[in-house]
Amino acid sequence: MSPEDPRTEDPRTARTKGRLRESLLAECADRPLAEVSVSAVVRRAGVGRATFYLHYEDLTALAVDACADVVHAAVDALHAWQTGPSPLPPARPPAALAAFLTDAADRAPLYRTLLLPGGGGPLGRRLHRELSARARAERAAVGAPHPELVASAVAAAFTGVLADWLHEDIQADPEALADHLWRLLLALHRAIGPDGGPKAGRSR
């Protein structure tokens, strides 16, 4: 397990970091991350500055940690349809995907700071990495071809679309976006057939 694995973290450290994460999110509810200070965060959390710097290099590092839940929520939302061993994905997205997008919109100001247009930024890199790992493992488990290639494409598409939507470059309500994203991701998964080329029978 990695040093950051919560199962190996000292309970006191976990509680302190939890207070700092909650404090930052509370501060960002009223103003952009760029206007939040370390002093304000530690004061609200009830800890000292030295304690803050013991755990985090800066506010951006804390923000990425505080936003870890959005990454896990995104991965879980995309796979909420999997209720049995290797079921076929449905034509319509799971309800959890629209719910995730609705929650993300509520914290759009903070996420926009960390998830840049096109999917860049610290939150974008973390989201891409975790989505890609999940898609790659699942594709490999069922023997689908080119798991690394398709997983990278799926993660890039989801991360980029989410970022551009949060930055209002894409106009859609959460339910409509969930539907569009779902069809896009299914198409990417099905794009490469067993021979490594376009899926047999697909129109050209």
Task: Give a summary of the structure in a few sentences.
The protein is mostly helical and 204 residues long.
Task: Tell me about this structure.
The chain is mostly helical and 204 residues long. The chain is built from ten helices and no strands. Helix 1 packs across helix 2 and helix 5 (68-78) runs antiparallel to helix 6 (95-106). The longest helix is centred in the middle third of the chain and has 21 residues, at 121-141. 30% of the residues are buried.
Shape: elongated
Largest sheet: none
The computed structural class is mainly alpha
Radius of gyration: 19 Å
Structural topology:
Elements: H1 11-28, H2 38-45, H3 49-55, H4 59-66, H5 68-78, H6 95-106, H7 108-114, H8 121-141, H9 147-166, H10 174-190
Helix pairs in contact: 1-2, 1-4, 5-6, 5-8, 6-10, 8-9, 9-10
Summary keywords:
mainly alpha; single chain; 204 residues; 10 helices
